[in-house]
Amino acid sequence: MSIKRTVLFTCLCFAIIIVGCRKEAFDAYYGRPKGLASPIYQQLDSMGDFKYFLSCIEKAGYRNTLGSASSWTVFAPTDRAFQQFMTENSISDTSQIDKKLAEKIVRTSMIYDGERLEKLGDYFHSRGWIEGLGFRRRTVYYDFVEDEVQSDGKIRKIISTNRGAGAAYIEAENNNKHITYFFNAYMSSNGLSATDYKTFYPNSNYTGLNVLGATIDPARSNIIAENGYIHVVDKVLMPEPSIDQYLRSNSQYSEFKNMLDFFATYNYNATVTRKNEVLTGKRDSVFVKGYSSIAFALNNENYIKEDANDAQMNNYSVTIPTNAAVRDYAKRVLLKYYPSGTTIKDLFYSNPIVLSEYINSHFYNTQLWPSRFTSQPNIGGEVTKLTPQNIIESKILSNGAFYGVNSSQQANVFQSVYGNVLLDPKYSFMRTALERMGLHITLRIPTIRYMLVLISDEKLYDMGFAYDAYNTSDPIRFKGGNGTPEMREIIMSHIIPLEADPIPTLSGKGILESFGGEYVKFDNMKLMSSGTQDSAVDKRYVKIDSISIGNSQSGPLNGVAVYLDGALTSSNTNTGFLLRNLGADKADSPYNRFYRYLIASSLYNATDGIVKGVDIGANYTLLIPNNEAIAAAIANGDLPAAENTTNVVLKNKITLFLQYHIARNSFAIDGKKQGTFETLCKDVEGNTQVVEVVTNQNNRLQIRDNSNNLVEADVAKSNQLGQRIVIHSLSGYLRNGI
């Protein structure tokens, strides 16, 4: 028995020795290393001048968080900073700082991940660190459920969206606020100066180590702790409001905010509602507030979220006009074409695009620095027409830069020819058609000039057009069928590129080429197209009611808008019948002898008036030798005397002669197009023959043929319009050389 006891005792001692040895090895490997810095809380406590901040940490319930393992960057305000804060906010002692205020202070001072100051200047992209791009960081602080006062005075419980306009709210993410810092390395590399900082924080000194309005003490920064880094600051950091929150609290921008409210969305969220009930004991429905149909959500703290941390290197910016500025612009521009008494609300329900365009013109999807106020393009690519003198206040808010201004942005879209269509409700159908066809994009560019002829809704309806939003194949209808092709033809005839030319003097006389390649003639404040030419005599020219040329306050600056008493249509008359309508079948017409050869040739179809080779939808120029020129061609042996000859060789000569006088593409006598133009004529090897427009002036046209002869046009009998055709009368004929 004693032997057993001895063995057991020996084993027990041996086990104790082994365990003791292993514990020593475990502690040596996993134990707290000697020389390891204390956690943030303990270090602040040992420094001696952070008793107020430590008190807030305890009230906020963050003592354990900051006193144990993790990774944080803390901007720690000194007791002196707290005393200043308490004086500014009429707080006599720390007992008046409740848990809610303490949480705001502490959580705003904390940002995720412990970083040295040098590293805060880098952007942590999903692919790794990118040096020099960072100037913002996500804090621990976020708002939860807020009260929002509705227009009827009732309170609605909301939580701000954490994504952009029109995007779904992500329940798993908090809408954490960000703080902005101004470090010398970032400022210098981006060409920024103390003035940029002082514009936002006029009562703070710029040192190149600033976070919001506070200064980081360079001698007490980069203090390493077990769970991060401490940077001592001379001011208490508080969470800034978002742009949305600031507008809700500032009545001098209420008119603009009221516009924004039309685009606000409210979606009930059961998860947040339940969470709020648990926290407050109140069974209030909570709605996620977001935005749609405008550029971005003003309450989203997360920037674009193309990358998880893209808010580290950018944010939104806004220029918000005062109430007086909004009312002035609404009267001068937005409601210019509406009857007296029309409200912004009426405008939203009739044409919300006008409001979204106006709102978006004040938005920037990047940080707008004061020094770049007049050069940084907004979200639409436009540089503001305002000056720094228009700025009444500048702020860095939690999700962007805010500029209060005393004037609205003069948006390019409203000072373009497209603006006349967009703003005037009488032309809403034309606007819809332009937008569906994508033609509005070029019409709103300030550097591309146009003459836009407006067609009223009433006229389009009279022509047989209608709009059916429920017809998904083609909501634009024409006489019961799909109408987009016909509408496109009409619309493109009403868009006339001006390029570098001056605005035409429409009280004079001339010809203009439309966007679709068809020509329009003007004469003493009247317009004529190939289609109006086809109609009754008194409608050949359509009267111009008025023209709109812009100035610095309103109206188009990229051309002229023309208001017409009707519409410019395209001809449906085929070439042969067109010539007949122009009197070519009459002996005294300069086109007569050419016409007789044409209708007797194999190129012509007498049933429908179509000339072979002249394809519908393409542009052509008919260069018709006058009767004397045809006689000269006969005398020179370039044409047989008989139009209806049965001789195969002579018939081919006639065909080639006719084809050589029909050029592909159209050109008018207007001082524009010159150069070579292909004709319908080909030699025996299939080579297309060309003519060359040598001289093209407003009152002269010269054409060189294959034999190097120059032929003059008879200007008075030229510039006749047809179905994508321009007709010129020539004083001679063109030799094809075949």
UniProtKB/TrEMBL annotation:
InterPro entries: Adhesion/Biosynth-related, FAS1_dom_sf, FAS1_domain. It comes from Sphingobacterium litopenaei. Coiled coil: none annotated. It comes from the Bacteria. PANTHER family: FI19380P1, PERIOSTIN-RELATED. It holds the Pfam family Fasciclin. SUPFAM superfamilies: FAS1 domain. Residues 37-237, 578-734 form the FAS1 domain. This is Fasciclin domain-containing protein.
